[in-house]
Amino acid sequence: MDIYLCSKRPSWLVDNRRMRTTSDFQWLLSAFVLLYLMNHVNSQRKETPYDLKCTTNNLQTWDCSWKAPSEAGHGTLSEFCIDNRSRSCYQLARTNIEIPALSRGDHEITIRSLQDAGSSTSKFILNEKNISLIPDTPEILNLSADFSTSTLHVKWNDKGSVYPRHSNVIWEIKILRKKSMELVKLVTHNTTLNGKDAVHHWSWVSDLPLECATHYVGIRCYVDNLLFSGHKEWSDWSPVKNVSWTPASQPKVFPQDKVILVGSDITFCCVSQEKVLSAQIGSTYCPLIHLDGENVAIKIRNISVSDSSGTNVVFMIEDNVCGTVVFAGYPPDTPQKLNCETHDLKEIICSWNPGRPTGLVGPRNTSYTLFEGFSGKYVRFKRVEVSTNESYHQLLFQMVPNQEIYNFTLYARNPLGRSQSTILVNITEKVYPHTPTSFKVKDINSTAVILSWHLPGSFAKINLLCQIEIKKINSVQELRNVTIKGVENSSYRIAVGKLNPYTVYTFRIRCSTETFWKWSKWSNKKQHLTTEAIPSKGPDTWREWSSDGKNLIIYWKIWAFFSEAYKGPEDFMNPISLALHDLQTEQAVGMGKGILLTWHHDPNMTCDYVIKWCNSSRSEPCLMDWRKVPSNSTEALIQSDQFRPGVRYNFFLYGCRNQGYQLLRSIIGYIEELAPIVAPNFTVEDTSADSILVKWEDIPVEELRGFLRGYLFYFEKGERDTSKMRDLESGRSDIKVKNITDISQKTLRIADLQGKTSYHLVLRAYTDGGMGPEKSMFVVTKENSVGLIIAILIPVAVAVIVGVVTSILCYRKREWIKETFYPDIPNPENCKALQFQKSVCEGSGALKTLEMNPCTPNNVEVLETRSTFPKIEDTEIISPVAECPEDSSDAEPENHVVVSYCPPIIEEEIPNPAGDEAGGTSQVIYIDVQSMYQPQAKPEEEHEKDPGGGAGYKPQMHLPINATVEDIAAEDDLDKTAGYRPQANVNTWNLVSPDSPRSTDSNSEIVSFGSPCSINSRQFLIPPKDEDSPQSNGGGWSFTNFFQNKPND
Amino acid sequence: MLACLCTVLWHLPAVPALNRTGDPGPGPSIQKTYDLTRYLEHQLRSLAGTYLNYLGPPFNEPDFNPPRLGADTLPRATVNLEVWRSLNDKLRLTQNYEAYSHLLCYLRGLNRQAATAELRRSLAHFCTSLQGLLGSIAGVMATLGYPLPQPLPGTEPTWTPGPAHSDFLQKMDDFWLLKELQTWLWRSAKDFNRLKKKMQPPAAAVTLHLEAHGF
């Protein structure tokens, strides 16, 4: 507030300034002076009225107050004057005054204090802007509490009559809780004053149940008058009012049985006289919030949906328990897919999907009411006790007579909210009839029956649309729609015609209404056999002479049960007599399942055409079927289920004249050509040194499976085992191909071949359907025999001629020749000089030349010879069966050591072809050298066990040896021999080598027996060509290789 | 000889071993009642499990043992040992009969209230069995010549669901109903066992320990 103080007295500040000196006193003195001066000023002010303040609480009067001078005692009079046009003064014995509100602008106020000692006057400038608007303290008329909803209701009077109209008032309400008066809510509430006293209400819902703690309410206001330019202030707070709950003796939990929205927050409290130990919601324990006394609360945030019996909130108290149940769920979803229809036009069935589950069951479950707007009727949904399909609800609504349009509204409601769905239906368009029952079939005649059925419902005002399914065995079903006028008695019948006589039919029916909504379900099926009828037409006939011309064959077709009008016997005409030789047989290939035949129009043909066909491979009479075509046609597509691809058919086109049928065309054809299934049978007719003549046979028609288009002939050099003409189509350069398109050609000469060479020939046929299989043959060309004969004959002839000439010459000159070449020779016996020579020739055996025969042994023994092979010390090659006894060793006549050997693998007996001079049989024994080499684990003990110390390699068999034949080493040397030894000495090999020719001498019996390594190495068996070669000692490269890594190397 | 034979035949009906009229007495029906009691005990275990789960935690927690709030109208099975011993057969059977009559009535109320169909089926099945037990007890009483207790007018147990009874207290009642039922079945088993032995030749004394354990 700006109040200007105007004093008439001279300013003391001026005097004081004069008194100030420029002395050099210390600053402390200056401060003292300053303090004195301040005191002086104060004493000056208190001499006049001061501190004028004005407020208003109603904008109509101002309350002004000021402070009197200090000298003024109690009861001092004051004069308060307002200087405006009409100066008005008030004499007062107090220091405050209520004046009417002044107009806008400055007003000079003079306050004169009338004291005994004189008067003191103060002047003030007063303006509305300096006035404070402070409303009166409001008062709460009533504070009430609705404990069930935890709502506080506050009621107060705005005292609007004291204020000018249209002042806005802001109310501030504070809610305090607990005895400690904790502020929990501070809200503002706006009202407008209307010049009259008005009572205002304000409600507040507490998050904490009101039973849990004392709640206090206070209020203050702020008047916002736009016309008032002064300072506006809040009123003082009203005295607080409180609500509290009187607890019972038993502890109790609040709120009880509350239904709340899932996800919201809620506070529970327990009002108890005893100490609460714990609190839990469901199985979750919660921290306690302590309230007044022993009361506690828990706050649950974002509560989840409850189980069917609700969520338990339990407070554990010593020796007691208290609790409540909270039901957290959802408001009802909008009913979805609301649909109303009727089965019988008597009752309307409305069904819907309740949508999202509310999570509330029992008494809190959603209740549904179906309300019909036009009639005002409604039905309520009753939950059946038996568990039903929760996702589908339905209600029955009895139809109102003569009402077709229904405006249904379905209301859904539960403690958390409500929702609704609306549907407007014309019920006659929403008929979903019941399933027809009592379905029966009755004969009318052979082609018509009567169907009857029962369909409950009052359809008298509408037409029914029914669908009859007629099914014939082995035929597609036929659906016939019929419209029937609805009847009241629910029985319907209808005639069904166009049936075949004597045919088994299966009927069933379903119905809808003419304004189609839904078909009913199909009725039961009824099977029915229609009655028989007389044939309506004679059979279709065809006649042919048999091939011998003596018999007439008549064909006819069995008609189906129904037919068109009866036809006269014009078909009965003369049989065909026209010869076929005038006609050329044509070829045709079909398309798809049929074959198209075309011909030129012939005006002579007055009747129809007949096309007959047959399988060409069938024997006579050949007729599969025929077809009659009107005389004005020039083409016909012949189709038959009997047609098969790859089968040749003969088609005959007959034209009809008055006197009979005449064969016009003969056609052979295929519905579809296929590749031949066999190859042409071909043979080689002739072979020469440079050519081959091939001849083949026709492929039978049944195996050709198409029109033969040619042959493909392939040939190449090759023998039976090596030549593989796999990829004939790949165009290999060495395969020569001849394409024979002249199908009448049956032979082929292949020229320019090489003599005495094997050729691989392949022939295959092809049609437009593809290549047939191939047939192949191997042929060897002949040698060039003429040249050979000439080469033989000429020398022979020359020799004969020379011989004849020579003979003639010799004969003629025989005397000369004798004289020249064979002169007479004297007899040597008569010659004494030659007596010695004769005695020599006839001498005893001492002078005979060497005879080989007695030297050939019939047995050969392989011996170790030290002189021939190097001694191999410490060898590990020891036969695993070295000690195997051999019977024959006992019978060994000689003293020399023969090491026996038991063959581990292969033993083969060869009967001695020439007799049994030495043991009867000769054994040829093969041994695997590697198997010998393996048993390296045999150490020297075996070596020591070896009788005679002959460890190491041993020959495979014990053979009696003729010491006189073989120059072998001394027996002492044999004792020292250790390690591997070849099976025989080189000399022996020389004799028995497989490469050496066997002696043909009857006295010699040389059996060649292989070396132990014969299986592994043939080279090992080949003797060295040069006996003196050092190679001979080693017995071949393979042998050396085997032992070159011996440890003793 | 013939006279001797006639004498034997004449006295034949008097031979005790052959003089059986076919009346087995109360023994078999007591045994059957006892067996039915044990069967109901078994059946209740299954039902209680289902129902306590339906009530939700903490009712289905094994250590939940609240004081008996409300549920004052439920017949109490627990009784002082001396008092129990002092009961005679008629009083025992009468108490059993009255208790099960009340419990059956409350159980039917439970059935009406149950929210799920499966629970309703279980409860209905158990009620049928309990009805059978009640009939068996009535049969035993009739065999022994005891009259059935007549319900006093006004004391008929009724099921009064209403807003006055909060859901929580209702759950507590349900909990206690099952608990009392369990205790009564234990007690009945003891009662009928005792009665059974009493009707048979003297047997060893029966010691009763009635203790209400938590479920």
TrEMBL record, chain B:
GO terms for molecular function: cytokine activity. Residues 1-17 form the signal peptide. GO terms for biological process: cell surface receptor signaling pathway via JAK-STAT; positive regulation of B cell proliferation. It comes from the Eukaryota. It comes from Propithecus coquereli. Forms a heteromeric complex with cardiotrophin-like cytokine CRLF1/CLF-1; the CRLF1-CLCF1 complex is a ligand for the ciliary neurotrophic factor receptor/CNTFR. The CRLF1-CLCF1 heterodimer binds SORL1 (via N-terminal ectodomain); within this complex, the interaction is mediated predominantly by the CRLF1 moiety. The tripartite signaling complex formed by CRLF1, CLCF1 and CNTFR also binds SORL1. It is found in: Secreted. Belongs to the IL-6 superfamily. The keyword Amino-acid biosynthesis does not apply. This is Cardiotrophin-like cytokine factor 1. Keywords: Cytokine, Glycoprotein, Secreted, Signal.
